[in-house]
Write a structure and sequence with these properties.
The protein has a single domain (about 5-165), classed as Sandwich (Jelly Rolls). The chain has helices spanning about 20-30, 50-60, 60-70, 85-95; strands spanning about 5-10, 15-20, 35, 75-80, 100, 105-120, 125-135, 135-140, 145-150, 155-160, 170. It is of the alpha+beta class. Helices cover about 20% and strands about 35% of the residues.
Length: about 190
């Protein structure tokens, strides 16, 4: 599957679709989101449970460049596959609209996931859905509300970057906007 950006209004009506990575990067830059395509390291395009140390070593150059720019306190690897007994619980948690005090940065070494970004300040009444696939790096600015769908049968490995020591801490909005948008399996 190819990476794709779909721009919606808040009623989930699609306004525009973009699949060219350069155009996706330019469009997301307008709302303060970093989007990059990294060359895949050997064996990272599959979801074959690559261990954290090997995966971080495989991407040491781009990770170091990003770390020089942002000064991350913590970098780790998150991986999930369809056999995970908590996959439904994790999926439901991430499907709820939330924000973070820290900006969120993810690199998909394998698999895919669907980020929904709701930039209420830079693009009010608009929702950006970015289907991230292996090789995609995306950031979500601090304070930007968003949600994430890993699908019914999640299968991805992502390198996660944190500037705070707490790691992933969400402030849930309680808004049900996410229920109006297509899930990853229907995208």
């Amino acid at each position: 599957m190819q990476s794709q950006l779909t721009i919606y209004n808040e009623q989930a009506k699609p306004l525009q679709q973009i699949s060219d990575s350069t155009a996706i990067e330019a469009e997301l830059d307008k709302i303060g989101v970093i989007y990059q395509r990294w060359a895949l390291a050997d064996n990272s395009g599959s979801n074959q449970g690559t261990d954290q140390d090997s995966l971080l070593a495989a991407y040491a150059g781009p990770i170091e460049a990003l770390n020089q720019q942002f000064g991350f306190n913590s970098i780790d690897v998150a991986s999930i596959d369809p056999s995970n007994p908590k996959k439904d619980e994790f999926r439901q948690m991430f499907l709820s609209e939330h924000s973070h005090k820290d900006f969120e940065v993810r690199f998909f070494a394998s698999g895919q996931g669907l980020f929904y970004l709701r930039p209420q300040v830079t693009a009010p009444n608009t929702v950006f859905a970015i289907l991230c696939t292996a090789g995609d790096l995306i950031s979500v600015p601090a304070g930007m509300t968003h949600w994430f769908d890993m699908g019914c049968e999640p299968a991805f490995t992502a390198i996660r970057f944190f500037t705070t020591d707490q790691g992933w801490v969400a402030d849930f909005t309680g808004d049900d906007i996410a229920t109006r948008f297509p899930l990853l399996d229907n995208h």
